User: Fold this.
Amino acid sequence: MGVKVKNTISFFVVNLIMMVLATILCPLRFYLLRKQRRSTLALWCDIWCLFGWVLLQGIGWYLVQSIWEEIQFRKSAVDISNVTEQYGKSKNFKGFLVFYIFVVTILWAFKIAFLFMYADLYQRTVNIRRYPLYFAFAFIPLSYVGLIVASFMECRPLGLNWDVERLRTTGEYCTPLFRRRTNNISVSLAVTTDILLIALPISILASLRLTSPEKRGIILMFVIAAISIIAAVGRYVVLSTRGMYNGRALSDPVTSFDNYYLAVTLAILEILAMETAFVLPAMKRVVLERKRRKEDHRDESTATEVRLVSFVEVGDGDALVDRPDPEAPTWGWQKSN
Assistant:
């Protein structure tokens, strides 16, 4: 009983952890920056970040639920024929297309959010050329449109994406998620736009009116954003070496779906890396702000204080009181450390 259940459990655990992190990060950023004054461009950055986050919640948690249902099905499967019958449904191939479009849209939503963040930084700088920023604002949205058009043009008519009968008779399937030409375009544009986003502010970083913590935060974002490049290239290389881009179904449908889950995992990792790039600088800023407040409080507690006190007669001597006494014969100053 059971058909390769362990593989599916591994994918479930990894995707569950990544989705928990992805669910927490974006709201955490908004919470950390809740008291900060936001410019219009910064608000547009937040809007695009939130848009990508909402789409990720929809597709991500649906995939987690689907993998969990897959685990239950594989546990009850008697042999591979049961799995083959389950996988050979048109809704699964429609899911390939929907997932691919969602992933591309989420990734490019975060890229546009990066653009508005950089535009906000440019706005704080005078006497600087903005042509690279204008080029990026034109190139990145157009690259998204071009990639979506190429994806829909890959399999014509559109119904070819979920033509189960063609798969059964010829052993061939067509979906942009596993087409070499579409993925060549996808990985090329993904890497190009990521490099553009990383390189865009480097030449002007020194001239921006930023504090040292802000500059370190941007550099940190560069490092994290580089993970998305590694994930994009890694997803392409892994699936290519596994033969998923040859347009033919593998002899073992379970292996085909395991490769699909692997593609899902790498895609979520790529998105998670970009989302993390938005949040860590905000966390760093809050930590530095708390550290500064603690230092100010410590300086205040150790500072020298001067208070007005009075001398009053008590028996044969004098006593000090820390409040004015109308009956005190003598007034003076007390210094306390």
Summary: The CA atoms of residues 114 and 197 lie 7 Å apart. The radius of gyration is 30 Å. DSSP finds nine helices and three strands in the chain.
